[in-house]
C-alpha cells in the first residue's frame, strides 16, 4: 500500500508552481500525494494528475483539520512554515518535515541592508525538505498543468507571433513602471499581448492608449489558466517578479524578468528546466537598499523607487531583442 503524504503550501501562484518538483519526487517514489492550499489558488493544483486530492482552506481551519485527520497520513510536508501550517501539521500527529525559513537572515537583509550568501533556489530548498524520505530525486522540473476549462474566445484573437507582457504584480515595487513598458513596446518591432489580473486593468488601458502601435489588451479578462495559454503561445514573456514569471519558466518560455525591490539572492528567479540562457534578469545592481522586502511592497520605503525608475529602457529593449533572435 502506498504511503500517504500531505503537502501544505497555502499560496501563492509562483510558490505553488515551484513546489511541483516536490510533488513529482513524492509521486515517482510511490507516495499518494495530497495537497492543502487556499481555495483561491486551488486551480493551480487540481489539474495535476500526480496529486490524488487537493484540500482547500477557507476560514474554517478546524473543519479542514477534522477531515484531514480521517485520511491517516503517514507524513506531512510543511512547505509554508507559518502559524496555520504548523497548527495543521501538529493536529495530524504524524511525522512532519518542515521548510526552513531563514527569517533572521532575511530581516537583517531587508531591514538593515546586511548582505549575505543566498540560501539557494527555492526549488532546491523545497526538495531538501523531503530528502529524508525520498531515495532518489531525478533532475527537478517545474511544471504547470492546464485545466480542461473552455478557453476564452479572446485567445482566438492572438497574433501568430508576439511578446506577452505581464503588466502588473501583487506589489507596486515589483511592477515595471508603465512609462517604461510603453517605451519598450514602441521601440521593439514585434506584436504585443498584454495580460494581467483584475487589479491591473487600468495599467493595461494606459499602455493600450499611449503606445504608438496596435496591440492586444487582455488584462483582467482571463483566468490563470487562459493567461498561461497566452504565455504558452508567445515567443517571449516580459514580466516583473511575479507568479506568471514562474509559469513562463515552467512552460519553457524565453523570459525577460525585471526585478525591482526583490532580488535573485532570495532564490525566486525563473527556474530553467533545460537551457539556463532561456531567461534574463534585469535589475539595478547599484543600490544597497535591495532587497527591501522578500515579497515586495506597496510603496518604496525610501520614497525614490530607484530600483525601477533608474533602469535603462534601452537595456530592456536590447535584452528583449537579443532573446527574440535566439
Fold topology:
Elements: E1 3-8, H1 13-18, H2 20-28, E2 31-38, E3 53-57, H3 61-69, E4 75-78, H4 83-92, E5 95-98, H5 103-111, H6 122-130, E6 163-166, H7 178-187, E7 192-195, H8 201-210, E8 216-217, H9 224-233, E9 236-240, H10 243-250, E10 255-258, E11 279-282, H11 306-309, H12 313-325
Helix pairs in contact: 2-6, 3-4, 7-8, 7-12
Question: How would you portray this structure in words?
Answer:
- The protein is an alpha/beta fold and 326 residues long.
- It has helices at 13-18, 20-28, 61-69, 83-92, 103-111, 122-130, 178-187, 201-210, 224-233, 243-250, 306-309, 313-325; strands at 3-8, 31-38, 53-57, 75-78, 95-98, 163-166, 192-195, 216-217, 236-240, 255-258, 279-282.
- The chain has a six-stranded parallel sheet with strand order 8-7-6-9-10-11, with helices on both faces. A five-stranded parallel sheet has the order 3-2-1-4-5, sandwiched between helices.
- β9 (236-240), α10 (243-250) and β10 form a beta-alpha-beta unit.
- α2 runs parallel beside α6 and α7 (178-187) crosses α12.
- The radius of gyration is 20 Å and the shape is globular.
- 40% of the residues are buried.
Percent of residues in helical segments? Answer: 25-40%
So, CATH architecture of the largest domain?
A: 3-Layer(aba) Sandwich
The total number of structural domains is 2
Largest sheet: 6 strands, parallel
Uncertain stretches: none
Mean pLDDT score, rounded?
94
Terminal CA distance reads 48 Å
Secondary-structure content class: alpha/beta
Number of strands: 11
Order of helices and strands: EHHEEHEHEHHEHEHEHEHEEHH
The amount of beta strand, in percent, is: 15-25%
* CATH homology-level superfamily of the largest domain: Glycogen Phosphorylase B
Number of discrete helical segments: 12
What overall geometry do the principal axes of the alpha carbons give?
globular
Please list the strands of the largest sheet in the order they lie side by side.
Answer: 8-7-6-9-10-11
CATH topology of the largest domain: Rossmann fold
Question: What value does the Rg take, in angstroms?
Answer: 20 Å
CATH class of the largest domain: Alpha Beta
